[in-house]
Amino acid sequence: MAPPLHLQPSTAPVNLANGKPSAPSTTGPKGGARRRFSLLDRIPYQVRYMHDLVGVSDGDCRDQLRMDRSTFHKLCYLLHSQCGLKSSRNVTIAEKVAMFLSILAHHTKNRTVKFQFKRSGQTVSKHFHAVLHCVLRLHSTFLVMPTVVTDEEADHRWEMFPGCLGALDGTYIDVHVPTTDKGRYRNRKGQCSVNVLGVGDRNMQFVYVLTGWEGSAVDSRVLRDAVNRANRLKVPRGNYYLCDNGYPNCEGFLTPYKGVRYHLNEWTARRPQNFQEYFNMKHTRARNVIERTFGLLKMR
Question: I need a labelling partner for 23 at 20 to 30 A (CA). Which of 40, 153, 186, 204 fits?
Answer without folding.
Answer: 40
